[in-house]
Amino acid sequence: MIVLGIESTAHTFGVALLDDQLKVLADVRKQYVPKSGGILPREVAPFFSQVAGAAVREALGAAGVRMGEVEAIAVALGPGMGPQLRVGASVARALAAYYGKPLVPVNHAVAHIEVARWLTGLKDPIVLYVAGGNTAVISYAEGRYRVFGETLDLPLGNALDTFAREVGIAPPYVREGKHAVDICAEGGEFVEGLPYVVKGQDSSFSGLLTAALKALRGGAALRDICFTFREIAYSSVVEVLERGLALTGKREVVLTGGVAASALLNEKLSLMASLHGAQFRPIPRSYAGDNGVMIALTGMAAFKWGQRVEPRRATIRQRWRVDQVPVPWYYGFP
Ligand code: FE2
Fold it and tell me: Model confidence over 31-56: pLDDT tens digits?
């Protein structure tokens, strides 16, 4: 059985083919890189429309597979940015309708978790999901993923990227496990005065961003502010994860989403997990960010457990929460 997965929630148009031995037959990624500034949906969506057809053909070609051999089409219908989601959904609906294939709706956040469980081999972890558009501590209980804590305002990745752009150290992408803010922080020292906010189980980063920029205007050294900003941001999510670990009694920890490429965040989590006798395993950096493989993987699980959607009902869900998705495959897959 072969499943074709389509990802288009943010900056990456991904198409992947996966067989039921979980062998990746193709993993095509077309990433939109803005010339300056952040991701503007009105610029990314036309880029996706341009590359979509070629990406599907490239994936099939790389795998040596014809559409007739594909058993189901999985698509990320949310959460994400509307214009980009619409491109992926349109392509998936068209393929499903034209070739008469079942269409499987996939939640992007669930897919980040499933790919992390698969790649680490950790079956029942508490999850730190951090990306440009999401920050949450999540764990499975009674049939679905539950949100233990999340950001009250900006996602952590967005806060880091915005800070990097505001202070002129963009592009902010993670390279070799380092974000622009990590590089800027080298040689920096912790300075007092920036807010560390954990409210209950939730984090907040907008006050931190404002205070960091204000401190710089007040003459603070950039490397000290980079260092302090990063330490506060990472430590607050690790604290929430630690509370979640203590409360749920889980024995395993994973980190997933774009910011999972950060070597330092991996280090902090690994240390925290070891203090609690829990197991932590990093995911390969290349699967931290968005990709079609995680959609195909989750789509395959969902398909086997009977989840599918009529193409005409396959509408996007920009704010589709992880805790709205039944996960009947949890103990049986991957
Ligand atoms: Fe993502």
Answer: 998 887 778 899 999 999 999 999 99
Cα 256 to averaged position of ligand 1 atoms, centre (Å): 9
DSSP 36: S
Which of 267, 263, 328 shows the shortest CA–CA distance to 302?
328
Strand partners, 12: 31
Mean pLDDT over all residues of the chain?
A: 96
Q: Which CATH architecture has domain 2-112+287-324?
A: 2-Layer Sandwich (3.30)
289 C-alpha to ligand 1 centroid (Å): 6
Tell me the residue length of the chain. 334
Q: What is the rounded distance in angstroms from the CA atom of residue 10 to the CA atom of residue 45?
A: 9
Q: 151 and 204 in contact (C-beta within 8 Å)?
A: yes
Are the C-beta atoms of residues 254 and 221 closer than 8 Å to each other? no
Expressed in angstroms and rounded, the spacing between residue 135 Cα and the centre of ligand 1 is 10
Asked whether this chain's domains 2-112+287-324 and 124-280 adopt the same fold, the reply is yes
Q: Provide the residues around ligand 1 (an ion) whose CB is within 5 A.
A: 131, 290
pLDDT at 115 over 90: yes
Phi-psi category of 171—alpha, beta or left, where left has phi over 0 and alpha has psi -120 to 50? beta
Domain layout of the chain by residue ranges: 2-112+287-324, 124-280
79 upstream amide cis, omega within 30 of 0:
yes
> How many angstroms is it from 274 CA to the middle of ligand 1?
27
CA of 114 to the centre of ligand 1 (A): 12
Distance 207 CA to ligand 1 centre (A): 24
Whether domain 124-280 has CATH 3.30.420.40: yes
Overall pTM > 0.90: yes
What is the dihedral sign for C-alpha 241, 242, 247, 250? positive
Is the CA virtual torsion 288, 320, 305, 295 positive or negative?
A: negative
Cα–ligand 1 centroid distance for 290 (angstroms): 5
Helix (H) or strand (E) holding 103, with range, is strand 103-107
**Centre of ligand 1 from the C-alpha of residue 30, in Å:** 14
Q: How far is the CA of 65 from the centre of ligand 1 (A)?
A: 27
220 Cα: distance to centroid of ligand 1 (angstroms)? 34
